[in-house]
Structure formats: structure tokens, C-alpha cells
Amino acid sequence: MELHDLDLNLLVVFNQLMLDRRVSTSAENLGLTQPAVSHALKRMRAVLGDDLFVRTYHGMQPTPYAEQLAEPVLLAMETLRDALNRANAFDPASSDRTFKVSMTDIGEIHLIPKLMDAFARLAPGCAISTVRNNVISLNEELENGTVDLAVGLIPQLQAGFFQRRLLRQHYVCLCRKDHPATHEPLTLERFCAYEHVRVVAANTGHGEADALMTRLGIRRSIRLEVPHFAAIGHILQHTDLLATVPERFATSSQDHFGLTALPHPVAIPEFTVNMLWHARYHRDPASRWLRQLMFDLFSEA
User: Fold this and answer.
1) From the record, what ranges are coiled-coil (predicted)?
2) What tens digit of pLDDT does each residue of 181-190 get?
3) pTM for the full predicted model
4) Right CATH number for 171-269 from 3.40.190.170, 3.40.720.10, 3.40.1160.10, 3.40.190.10?
5) Which fold has domain 98-168+272-298?
6) Distance between CA 10 and CA 30 in Å, rounded?
7) Are 109 and 252 in contact (CB under 8 A)?
């Protein structure tokens, strides 16, 4: 016999009859009429080729075959019930889930320390794994659940995705404290005269800032290019280079590396840092918990 030969709703009736041993009581507990339960029992008898329950002075007594079925049916129903309940709840305090979040290295610098502190308090068994915003694969990874959440300026993710704004970033110039640029206002002419380190970060808000200066015809003397922000503080501390960086990065780096942030002479528009997730996981409890935590920790709203 195959499962498609049996209406699985009948197993709910079977399980209730095993518990109550009376058609009338089972009907009441299931919210059905007594004839409906009797009809369900009749259908089960026909499909399974067994009486299943025999009427006696003490109620409906199960046959040996029904007793053989009772435990597997109960186990299957409890397993299904647990699965359905887990789909509607997520307990961060008892979970050991690893969340994978796509973000840039500057996102790691600004967001991860505070996020890890929150995990230590609220979800001590959970972990975080970060990956880079590779737009080519990110779409598929968010869709199949390999990546839970993306953070950044990622305009390429549109159809099929939700997004929520976290914060806005604007740009400053960063240099060492004794840099000549700190001795007088940083005009555009002086900005272009100094040598620069540039972070090459295509498809990010920082990449848009570089693209804007290129479109405006602003020519900088680029002496060094690096693929990430991690070494910028060390580099500026020991050179006369300038760097165009988000203000939050500058704020977190100044004291540690002995740097100074200066107003940027180019009117670079602010860019928005968003959370993005695929519509498939919009109602997933674990995903919703992570998104709400991120919003509570970092949103400027």
C-alpha cells in the first residue's frame, strides 16, 4: 500500500479513536459530527482491510492491527506537529544556528563587534559567518538560503527581494594627525595635489563615490590601491596619503591609529546601507529575528 492510497486526514481520526475509544468523544474532541467520524472509520476499514476498532461494552477496542499501527501513527503526527510548530517559532537562546551575512569589510568593522555582543547576550549558541557582496552569486545564494542576509548598497538586487534601510553614510577625508592637509582648509585644489590611497570596491557605495569623482573630472594622484579597508589605518598612520572613507570608518579609526578626519571638498552624496533578503525567507522566524536585531542595533530610524 502507498500513502497516496490513503487520505492522511483519516490518520488524525484513527489517532483520536486510539486515545478516546469512543466515537462520540472523538467527534467532540476533533470538532466533527459523530456520523463524520463513523464515516471516516468506515473508509479506513475499507482501505486497510481491517476492522481497526470493535465495539464492546467498554467502548471501541482496537484490533491487533490497529495496536500495531498506533505507535507509528502517533510518532508521525508528533513529528509533523513539532515541525509545524518550529516553522512558526525561533528561540535564539537555545538555537545553535550559524547565520551567514553578506557584507563588505567596512561593514564588518562597523557592525560585527556590536552584533557579536548582542549574540553573546541573546543567542549564545548561534554563530555568524560573513561573506563578500559578490553580486553575481549573491542573488542565487540569498534565494536558496545559503546566505541569510545582505547588508550594503546593492541596487542590483531588486525583483524578488525585500530591503530595509539601516543607516546613511557620508564621506570624509582621512589622514594622519600631522599631515600638511590638517594645517589649512582642504580645498579641492589641495585635495588633488596630495597623493591618495584608493580602496577599489566595485558595486558598493564606496565604488559609487569613486565613480562620481571620475565623472566630475577630479584627478587625484593615486599612489596606492588596495582591495579593502582593513589596512587603511596602518597605511595612513605611516604615510602622507589621503583616503576618501565613510565617516563611521573614520570615527572608529582615528584614535586607534592617530588619524584626523577632514571635511571632503567634493560634494559626494550620502549613500544608504540597507538590509536585503529574498522573498522566500520573508516570514522565516530565524531570518525575521536576525533582521529585527540588526534593525534594533543599527537603524537610524
Assistant:
1) none
2) 999 999 999 9
3) 0.67
4) 3.40.190.10
5) D-Maltodextrin-Binding Protein; domain 2 (3.40.190)
6) 12
7) yes
